[in-house]
Amino acid sequence: MTTVNKVKVARLEDLTPLIGKKVIVQDKEIGLFLTSAGQVHAVHNICPHKQGPLSEGTVSGHYVYCPLHDQKVDLTTGIVQEPDTGCVDVFPVEIADGDIYLCL
Description:
Elements: E1 6-11, E2 21-25, E3 28-34, E4 40-44, E5 58-60, E6 63-65, E7 72-74, E8 90-91, E9 93-96, E10 99-103
Antiparallel strand pairs: 1-10, 2-3, 3-4, 4-8, 5-6, 6-7, 9-10
GO molecular function: 2 iron, 2 sulfur cluster binding; metal ion binding; monooxygenase activity; nitrite reductase [NAD(P)H] activity; oxidoreductase activity, acting on paired donors, with incorporation or reduction of molecular oxygen
Protein name: Nitrite reductase [NAD(P)H] small subunit
EC number: 1.7.1.4
């Protein structure tokens, strides 16, 4: 049986809609995103193409665009959209009393 480790990474009030925030958890660089629909997503912050920092990219809907080469990454699945290929890890998020937790 796998044990889930919940790590507090931010407060909901620390996030700005459509603007990424970089956090470091257990030596992993993670991008947090608050969509315009109010959903919080967490993905590995490094684009698989040229290692661009996704937290500095443009957010639209449930996608983030890499700031280096405009690769479109789905924040819910981590899959890079065609015609590009690749994916990034997605981390489950829980929110309790305004605190944002990653489930690792």
